[in-house]
Amino acid sequence: MNKFFFTRNTPGEIAKSLAKKIQKHRKNLKLSQAQLAEKSGVSLGSIKRFECKYEISLTSFIKIAIALGLNNDLDNLFTKKSYNSIDEVINGEI
Questions:
Q1: 23 with 36: CB under 8 angstroms?
Q2: What domains, with CATH codes, occur in the chain?
Q3: What Rg value do the Cα atoms of the chain yield, rounded?
């Protein structure tokens, strides 16, 4: 039995989702894979493999995210919002 049977996403599905989000962000910035490789210091082959097969080292993923200006997204990863009042929830504060 698949040990991820009860989870909403498998590791492969999560990796694919992350790769597609990075690819979309790269394209929104009008960067080619080669330009991203140069800007991030990650090899073109690694970027192609990430966007096609969803495989990449954590260090390379971080370099790509930084090159795309996604530092804050990484900093906020795994943080939970805490609210002090219902008004903060309603107003989307924090």
A1: no
A2: 11-75 (1.10.260.40)
A3: 17
pLDDT value at position 1? 46
CA dihedral 67, 27, 35, 42 (to 10 degrees): 50
What gap in Å lies between CA 69 and CA 80, rounded to an integer? 22
CA distance 22 to 20: 5
Whose structure tokens read 């990484």? 74
The tens digit of pLDDT for each residue in 44-86 reads 999 999 999 999 999 999 999 999 999 999 988 888 777 778 8
Gap between the Cα atoms of 39 and 66, Å rounded: 10
In whole angstroms, give the CA distance from residue 8 to residue 70: 25
- Work out the percent of the chain whose per-residue pLDDT is above 90: 67
Report the distance separating Cα 50 and Cα 61, nearest Å: 9
